[in-house]
Amino acid sequence: MSMTSSLSTSSFSLGQSYVARRFDPSMSRAPTAEEISQRKQEAAKQAAGLAEANDPAKIAAYKSVKAHTVVRMNGEIVAAAYRDGTADYHRNAAFIGLDAATYANQLAGPQGRDYMVNAIMKKLGNRAVEERYGETGWAPNRGAIDKEANASKA
User: Is the dihedral of CA 110, 113, 115, 118 positive or negative?
Assistant: First the structure.
């Protein structure tokens, strides 16, 4: 069995040369049983991950998380920090160079959210308005915030 591929050199009309590789079936081999098994396991994991990501109960739980703070600029939502410690940035250009979320994740609970919101407000300055809902009580949920933010993008 030859382990070399055949090469040919051709030229374009502009005089540039290139190397074309031709498929040589003698160089291909059938996958082993172990490789087939690994591929099937990887495909099953990927399918399970997609199924989990599209699980209506998980999507509903994700959208139901209440906001801790919503930040607006010119009446439009630009960021939101949630009670579960996550955050969404709806106008990413405003947050270039801001890694507050990275540091905030190292702080516990309300301290992390306060740090993140304070960093956002400092970056945006007096152009931004902060709506702080706190840890308990009524607050808009992620689904409502995303819907409003996406409606203002259109």
Answer: negative
pLDDT digits (tens, 9 = 90+) for 56-87: 888 899 899 999 999 998 889 988 889 988 88
CB 97 within 8 A of CB 30: no
Q: Is 18 helix (H, G, I), strand (E, B) or coil?
A: strand
In angstroms, rounded to a whole number, what is the distance separating the alpha carbons of residues 100 and 116?
5
Give Cα 9 distance to the centre of its chain.
44
Are 66 and 139 in contact, with CB atoms under 8 Å apart? yes
Question: Is residue 149 within 8 Å of 77, Cβ to Cβ?
Answer: yes
Q: Hey, what long-range contacts does 72-80 have (CB within 8 A, 24 or more apart)?
A: 72/128, 72/129, 72/131, 73/124, 73/127, 73/128, 73/129, 74/127, 76/149, 76/152, 77/145, 77/148, 77/149, 77/152, 78/124, 78/128, 79/120, 80/142, 80/145
Looking at residue 45, the DSSP 8-state letter turns out to be: H
